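Deviations from the work plan: none for this task. Representative record:
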Amino acid sequence: MSISLKVNGRMHSLDLDPDTPLLYALSDDLALNGPKFGCGLGQCGACTVLIKGQAVRSCVTTLKAVSGADVTTLEGLGTPEKPHPIQQAFITEQAAQCGFCLNGVILTAKAYLDRNPKATDAQIQQAMSAVLCRCFTSSRMVRAIQRYAKEAK
Amino acid sequence: MNRREFLQASGVLIVGFNATLRAQTAMSPSLAQVDSWLVIAADGSITAYSGKEELGQGIAVAQQQLVAEELNVPFERVKLIYCDTAQTPDQAHTSGSQSHPANFNHDNLGQAAATAGEALLKLASERLGLPVSQLTAANGSIGNGTRSVSYGQLLGGKKFNLALSTTAKRKPPSAWTVLGKPINNPDLPALVTGQFPFIHNVRVPGMLHGRVVRPPAVGATVISVDESSVSGLPGLIKVVVKKDFIGVVAEKPWQALQAAAKLNVKWTNGKALPAQAAFYDALRKQPARDTMLVDSRNVDASLRGSTATLKATYLHPYQMHGSLASSCAVADVQGSKATLWSATQAVWYQKSTSAAILGLKQENVRVIFARGSGCYGVNGADTVTYDAAVLSQAVGKPVRVQLTRHDEMAFENYGPAYVIDQRAGLDAKGNIAAWDFESWSPTLGGRPGANTPGNVITGALLGFPTPGFTPRSPAPAPGAYANNSNGVPSYLSANNRGTGTIASGRVLTHSVESNFWTGPLRSPARLQNTFAHECFMDELAAHAKADPVEFRRRHLRDPRMLDVLNAAAKAANWAPRPFPRTGLRKSGIVTGRGVACVLYEGDNGYTSIITEAEVNQATGAIKVRRVISANDVGPVSNPMGLRNQVEGGALQGLSRALGEEVTWDEHQITSVDWRTYRSLPVGFDIPVIETVIVNRPDAEAAGAGETSITLIAAALGNAIFDATGARLRQIPFTPERVKAALAAR
């Protein structure tokens, strides 16, 4: 069965089992490095993508559930040469160690702040309470998120 | 070609991409030759080769700084390639905060660069007809101000053909222009934009996907495998059974996952596990291998002669690395040759053990490091590399294996549990007269060594022996003093070795056989021992009614240890006050402060931490407000990297102190995902972290990656005591345990 999907502005037609999680299609079939397999259970955030501005955990979202959707991955925000402001905020704050979690951290924060531009620090903390960084670069990451929130206002 | 391009290139299997620079070799290049470490191309670009890899800890940047500094070129001029057994010198493994000591002191990469620098000066002297004394090197050229010659012109892509010189002069920190300056992580633009390729993104043409089927219970073995249970599943290529190792290979990762889930396997019951509630007591009763680290042979008499004697038992659970990524590897085994892409900390051990597993000659196996998520020790990276190798060999095609979260968490080599009995005597003046330490800790397997694939689950399932455990009691007399595991408290003198003043001491450890795999987890043993030492030191200070910082000062004699302790106290505005505090409120939210210090591994970085914490006495919840950390790790290569490591270590340690604990039932591990193994998330009440760097430009370079994590649990336990008068002696400090300790006041 063929499932069509728009990813970072490009249309794709995927001939895959419709029960395949979206993550597998993105990282295996479309060879994207942004969305990552962390737990496969929707618990850590590493697989996050944006659909209609919402942070979606692609490891527990089937292809058939998002057929025809417009998906944005971390690659879709900006490039190393021209990063998106939230990506730039993470560079400015040097907010990474291994960097594996960045996908989930950045996209979760962006989805939340874009809908809640006046979020308080406490609300940002709450919004990030189901995303994991096991290197615990947390304080720098929260500073980067706050920097983006401030600059976006 | 930079590191990112290198990884991307490896991801599409462009092997031999830099053949113009360096031939691929069957064996790793010699440590003793400059050419093993450095190549200067005709265009003057410098490629450094290192056996110490980037795991997220920042060592790649520091190594680039080191080479740039010694060779007088800008940071950006140096490319770094690390941990490819066909290209880089064999430096065993990247662990134990040893990369700085190994490459920045008197050998290896730093010394190779210094040797190369002197050789280039000599070549320039000959070329320009000027004495070396009139020449200086700058920006990749050597000259006297009027005439100069570039490195590219001097060496023109040729080899140095030169052994590392032990006398080549290193640049003193006072002359540094690249080292010692904060350098941003050059990988970040690729990381934040999702371009950076991890091991999970290595894609080899024709690659298939494998999954493993692990035993459902500890010690369970295969009775039978019903391959018909998966026959006809879409994409399935093969079911692979080798003794107790089972895996499937399919065209797509999702197909492999489904086949693995559907495969009907009959297993034996495995062994009965001890009830977790009684586990710590059971540890003391098992046959043990005893080691005496220190014995002044007068401890019992000193304790008898003491004015007061204190005893306490500290408990630390098994904890896991809990890497964010489930481990992944790619293997391409074709006939007698194998190429393995692995996130292992030890590509050379992976090479020899994989050769044994595959029945291949070592020289026919190449292991290329590709970055995984932070590992913090021996996570699933080694075992999944064996998984991929075995499955690739079985199908004769490249195979990628990614573990499930359950496979990762149920079978990794955990940081071991500890039971620690502390006993000490105080004299009439309130000084410590004797210190007696005894610990019990379980062990099974570990980091695969050169010949021990059975140190991790896959090797053992394939039938490779897990190196045996031989009980030994009593312990032989202590050998030469070393405090690699921080088993010896900082306050002991140990025949004038060690950092302290107490002459009467005994440190006895019992190693017992573990039911679960164990291995190095960030600050292995050092964290557990230091938790017990530094909390017990606080108990002794409280008994002596002495300020905890002042009490530590009284029992320390190493000036560098005193300096970090004082630096932390100063930054925290620590003023002495009566201890323990009187008139503590027994309800509501109260605050306290706690201190701890240690010389990591007995010789690898001085550090002290002070925490300020809140205790909610109704709920048992702990909130850490401030962490102040002072660090002396010798000359600092990259202050940016050092701060990042100290901050991350402190918060990771906090997560482990507050919530992390491996759990099990009668048959199996039950902490198998992020609901059953509790990690702090990105969004929590993050304390303010202040990092004080005590720079020691003239000292030896030491490690920094495991300093703060070694101390945070102790400093926090001490802060909770200061706030409440309740002493927590068991990690993690869950709300239930906090409430129980409060109720017992």
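The CA atoms of residues 321 and 379 of chain B lie 6 Å apart.
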